[in-house]
Write a structure and sequence with these properties.
The chain is an all-alpha fold. The protein has twelve helices and two strands, in the order H-H-H-H-H-H-E-E-H-H-H-H-H-H. It has two domains: 39-155, no CATH class; 165-275 and 322-341, no CATH class.
């Protein structure tokens, strides 16, 4: 049995390595996120200047096809490139300190060129060091550019999913972290038309890991017909929604509700949300029994082969947060995979 276990886990490691390796290649990203992730990219290509410029640019005369904003959004908001994650076209608040080498538009609004210096890409310099041609780059940590304008103390622990309502009203700044404009929560929700800054399949991983928990990676695909049928029936049964992305694929928001209670009326499908203040006692007891029985075995299996140090097993069971329905006792799983439990 011992040698069979070694063979099994060796095969599992090889499989996971192959999956994760595919996910970081261009082919893997296209497969995972859809073709919208990779399109023709004119940046860092000397032969594609006219994608952005009317004629050959020169110092002091860029001859852009649009202004400092529309020259970028003609691609980055029309499906040709990923949409911007940071808000643009807004006047910075007094708390934001814009460095003198981060240009604003004439009306003092931010644009894509506030943070990106496209001339670096045009000159074909430092592609490996500064792929996104960030001003002041390259940066050791991508977040470092944020703190050129934002006070690190103010943004530490910022969570756009919290404090979305103040004095009974929706806080617009929280909405535009993910949405391109503040949606009307009373308007009819049209599947695929969520007014987001990026494709729904990409939006969450701007902040969260691609695999934040077990099973996340395997769910980023179009549900099979029988699963889709079960999802529709569960939506009616529980009075909820299981939203899919623009191409009918499952995303983080299919199972997780990113909105605070009260943004949508609680009697509406989009307003249904399950959260726990603490882990239920029975669940805690089951987890402790399981973790005690498996602790030594798991510790051995999770050894770090690189330096010989064992990887510490996370034995803390956390309360469920931001769920559309509870995952306890398989309720969420059965909402989609009911056939797995049929006798």
């Amino acid at each position: 049995m011992g040698h069979l276990r070694v063979i099994f886990f060796s095969a599992l490691v090889l499989l996971l390595t192959a999956v994760l390796s595919a996910a970081v290649t261009e082919e893997g990203m296209v497969s995972l996120y859809g073709k919208e992730y990779f399109k023709v990219n004119p940046h860092w290509d000397a032969g594609k200047c006219f994608a952005c410029h009317d004629r050959t640019p020169r110092k002091g005369a860029l001859f852009l096809r649009g202004d400092e904003y529309t020259s970028c959004t003609i691609c980055h908001e029309r499906g040709k490139g990923s949409e911007e994650l940071h808000a643009v076209g807004t006047v910075p608040s007094v708390k934001i300190k814009i460095p003198p080498d981060f240009p604003l538009m004439p009306d003092r609004k931010t644009s894509c060129l506030t943070c990106h210096n496209h001339s670096v890409a045009c000159d074909l310099k430092d592609k490996k060091k500064n792929l996104y041609f960030l001003r002041g780059g390259p940066y050791a940590d991508m977040l470092d550019i944020c703190f050129r304008c934002h006070d690190k103390a103010d943004v530490k622990g910022y969570n756009p999913h919290e404090h979305q309502i103040k004095d009974g009203k929706i806080v617009d700044d929280r909405c535009i972290f993910c949405h391109s404009k503040v949606p009307d929560p009373k308007a009819k929700i049209i599947p695929g038309e969520y007014q987001l800054r990026r494709k729904l399949s990409l939006l969450c991983i701007g902040c969260h890991l691609l695999t934040p928990h077990s099973g996340a990676f395997e769910h980023l695909e179009k549900p099979k017909d029988r699963v889709l049928e079960a999802m529709k029936e569960s939506e009616k049964k529980y009075g909820i929604i299981f939203p899919l992305d623009e191409e009918g694929r499952m995303t983080c928001a299919t199972c997780h509700n990113p909105h605070e209670k009260g943004v949508f009326a609680e009697d509406k499908p989009a307003g249904t949300k399950y959260e726990e203040e603490k882990v239920p006692d029975e669940a805690e007891k089951k987890w402790k029994r399981m973790s005690l029985l498996r602790a030594k075995e798991l510790q051995y299996e999770m050894q770090n082969k690189k330096n010989g140090n064992g990887v510490k097993m996370d034995t803390a069971l956390r309360p469920e947060k931001n769920m559309r329905i509870s995952a306890r006792n398989g309720k969420l799983c059965m909402a989609c995979h009911r056939d797995r439990w049929k006798k």
